Amino acid sequence: MFRRLAVLAAALILAACSQQPAGEGGAPKTELAFSILSAESQQSAQRDWEPFLADMSKALGMPVKAYYGNNYTGLIEAMRFKQTDVGWFTNQSGLEAVRRANGEVFARSVNPTGPDGYEAVVIVRRGSGLTLEKLLACDRSLNFGMGDTKSTSGTLAPMTYLFAPRGIDPATCFKTVRSANHEANLFAVGSGTLDAATNNTASMERMEMLDTPLARRTLGAVEIVWRSPRIPEDPLIIRKDLDPALRRKIEAFMFSYGVGSTPEAARQRAILARIQTLPFKRADASHLLPVREMEATGELLQAKARGDQAGVAKAEAALAEIRRERAAVEPG
User: Fold this and answer.
1) The whole model's pTM is what?
2) Domains plus CATH for the chain?
3) pLDDT tens column, 250-264
4) Residue 109 — φ and ψ, nearest 5°?
């Protein structure tokens, strides 16, 4: 009888432990780390994100710590080394987090101002007389700004849709090429420090939403000379090895937050508006198909320009696989 009771007690203890979110070494997880790119200043990001993370902490019953980074490479590495558990990424950096950091897409943001998606753009100083044709003359007289190397709109989309099809390498086209976040590039073009730079419509809409004298002055000082095809909204990435019970709690919070017609739901939607999204939607690996297609298309164009037949074959095989996956998930 004693042995039976001991076995039963051990089983109950194990069952109780298995229901708690596990941290490193199997110990119950005591806090969640949520990664956020400080696309503008960290102070601005903290102000916008703190109310959301506070609500998330209450829902999960544990602290949710913000992990701010000023570039996506750092955020990818943080997830790879289990310093973060979940985060908001761009499409390209999200793809890298899936490939290298044991992450997977589980949700996506939703454009709060119109059709889903956004556009990469190239901006110049208003009244400068700089056109796209002059920009692409590649006489090495202009100073150009691009985004983080893992930025979809700051780097991948312009390379895929603007530079690669024309056989242009920005490093040899411009006098200088500077990598910075969208806000820094916007201010640099507006002030004349840069002649042109990449940006995106979501970032510019965010600046407009701030409605400060500096924001109005800066937006009024720039104009768009190129737009990309529409890019899908940003994915949220979660670590695959996160405790399933904790993941269910995260998903329950994320997909109910801001949903409904109650005053509380309205309060939550106002918080979401500050981070530029409507209530989050479920997503999976198929969300990354467009960015994989952009990536493979860019690689194909570059391989053709180099005369690299092996590279061409590899890129064409990648595009064929993407088409098969798209056919499997899209109706009709």
Assistant:
1) 0.80
2) 30-112+231-282 (3.40.190.10), 118-229 (3.40.190.10), 287-326 (no CATH)
3) 999 999 999 999 999
4) -80, 170
